[in-house]
Amino acid sequence: TQLLEQSPQFLSIQEGENLTVYCNSSSVFSSLQWYRQEPGEGPVLLVTVVTGGEVKKLKRLTFQFGDARKDSSLHITAAQPGDTGLYLCAGAGGNEKLTFGTGTRLTIIP
Amino acid sequence: GAVVSQHPSWVICKSGTSVKIECRSLDFQATTMFWYRQFPKQSLMLMATSNEGSKATYEQGVEKDKFLINHASLTLSTLTVTSAHPEDSSFYICSASDRGRGLYEQYFGPGTRLTVT
C-alpha cells in the first residue's frame, strides 16, 4: 500500500512569513499533484509535477518533486490570509488512482 | 476548463431512505470518475473508481450494495447511498479525470454534505 505522509499536520503562521510543507513516501510515483481545499468545498488542483527534480513556480508558491520521485515539497513565500486552507499532495502510481497525503491544515493569521 | 459539478450540494434525509448524488463533468469527457468520502479535518478516502459503461471498482471495506455507483455516460456518474444511517453522514466528493491528458490529474466537484437523521 502506498502511503503519503505530510508534515506538518497543522501550521499557523503570521501573514508575511514563509513556510514549507513536505510530502514523503517510500513509494515511487509517476506524477504528483498538489491540491488546496477550503472548508465545504472540493480540492482544487494547484500543480502537477512529473519529472524527478522538477521545480514549478506558481506566483508565491514553489513546488519541487524529489529526484527519486518519492517526495515533494511546497514552499510559500510571504504567506497571505488567502493561502489558508487544507493542502493535499496526491501521487499517481501509474494508473488513474491517486494516493492522497494525510493533509496539512494551514492558517495564516492577518 | 475541467469543471466538475455535483448535485445536490447538501442533503438531509431520514434514516432508512436512499439518497442519490450526481457528478457531472461540464466541459470535458471523463473517462474515469472517482468517489471519495471525507470526514471532518481529515484527508480524502477513495470509495470507488468508475469507468463509463462498466461496473465500479470499490475499495476494500466499502460496501458495494450500500453505495451504488452508475457511470452511464462520459459526463455523468451517480452515487446512491441506500438505506442511509447516521454513520453515513459525511462529505462526499467526486472527481473526474480525462485520460487523454495523460497526467492522471483529477478535477473535483464541490462536494455534497449528507446528513442522515
Spell out the blueprint of helices and strands.
The complex is a heterodimer of chains A (110) and B (117).
Chain A: E1 5-7, E2 10-14, E3 19-24, E4 31-37, E5 44-49, E6 55-58, E7 61-65, E8 71-76, E9 85-92, E10 98-100, E11 104-109
Chain B: E1 4-7, E2 10-13, E3 19-25, E4 32-38, E5 44-51, E6 57-58, E7 67-73, E8 76-81, E9 90-97, E10 107-108, E11 112-116
Parallel strand pairs in B: 2-11
Antiparallel strand pairs in B: 1-3, 3-8, 4-5, 4-9, 5-6, 7-8, 9-10, 9-11
Summarize the structure in words.
The complex is a heterodimer of chains A (110) and B (117). Chain A has no helices and 11 strands. With 110 residues, chain A is mainly beta. In chain A, a hairpin with a 5-residue loop joins strand 9 and strand 10 (98-100). The mean pLDDT of chain A is 94. In chain B, 0% of the residues lie in helices and 51% in strands. The interface between A and B is medium-sized, with 24 and 27 residues.
Task: Summarize, please.
The complex is a heterodimer of chains A (110) and B (117). Chain A is mostly beta strands and 110 residues long.
Number of strands of chain B: 11
Instruction: Briefly note the structural class of the backbone of chain A.
Output: mainly beta
For the largest beta-sheet of chain A, the strand count, sense and barrel status come to: 6 strands, mixed
Q: Write the H/E string of chain B, N to C.
A: EEEEEEEEEEE
Topology, number of strands of chain A: 11
Identify the biggest protein-protein contact and residues per side: A-B, 24 and 27 residues
Strand content of chain B: over 45%
Straight-line N-to-C gap of chain B: 37 Å
Rg result of chain B: 13 Å
Average pLDDT number of chain A:
94
Helix content of chain A: under 10%
Radius of gyration of chain A: 13 Å
Name the quaternary structure: heterodimer
Our count of helices of chain B gives 0
Q: What is the helix tally of chain A?
A: 0
Give a quick account of the main beta sheet of chain B: strands, pairing sense, barrel closure. Answer: 7 strands, mixed
Mean pLDDT of chain B: 92
Low-confidence stretches of chain B: none
